[in-house]
Give the backbone structure.
Amino acid sequence: MTTEKVAFTGVRQTLLATLYGRALDSRADRPVLGDRMAEDAVRRIAFDFTRFRLTPGEAAVVAMRGRQLDEWTRAFLSDHPDAVVAHLGCGLDCRVFRVAPPAGVQWFDVDYPEVVELRRRLYPGRQGYRLIGCSVTDPAWLPDIPRDRPALVVAEGLTMYLSGPAMETLVHRVANHFDAGGEAAFDAVSPLAVRLQRLNRILRTSGATLTWGLGDPRRLEGWDPRLRLVAEVAAVELPWIDRLPFPYRLACRVMRLVPPLRRLGVLVRYRFSD
Ligand SMILES: C[S@@+](CC[C@H](N)C(=O)[O-])C[C@H]1O[C@@H](n2cnc3c(N)ncnc32)[C@H](O)[C@@H]1O
């Protein structure tokens, strides 16, 4: 087994924390996601993952977010077996392997070039699957992606690291590119979570900075008239909360009762029309 040395800092290092969260979840008695490929990848990367000091509860929270986005992805692909998927800020996430899309789907994983290079060394290829090494703020990631099929743009743990103007530009580019329309599904944090970021251990450890918070998800409809919000779920209301250790379940219950805390983390799904 070859070991990969990784010297990522800042936002690129956060992908190691979320990978480790999924690996820890896969070791649990009742995993939320059960992603064994994450565990295998962690074993192959020469990096001290314990520095993130992730608790089993934090690992389960990462896994719950991933599971919800997996389920939205599966739902879209079951309605559109000829779709294209653009998975932005993929990091080392194994969504394409967990979802195992039907043969008619073309799936593109997009992240910075050095992240994509590491992915190539760690994971196998698949039919209909391609990697694009490019910043999502650079329009160069789009032209290679077919525009004439229903599209799902999915992003996990990405939007909070983009600026507001970069998010708005991204929304327009996506809506302009995909002529057949489609959906966008992603998680976001609230402006309060951005203000409270010093409390976030993963950010302190990696040196990454949160830059964008989503207030009212309907505001994005004002950015582009082709966008419609179709689903919104607070992270503390995800269906797998019962798998969290008791203190986390209790914290979720309390947070649900306090609107600004309930909205610290949300998952949203938009439809964009042709
Ligand atoms: C918290 S990690 C999440 C990674 C993966 N989605 C997961 O859930 O494990 C944030 C990811 O966003 C990527 N990222 C941040 N800004 C980016 C940008 N402008 N272009 C492409 N990727 C970006 C980072 O490289 C990293 O892989």
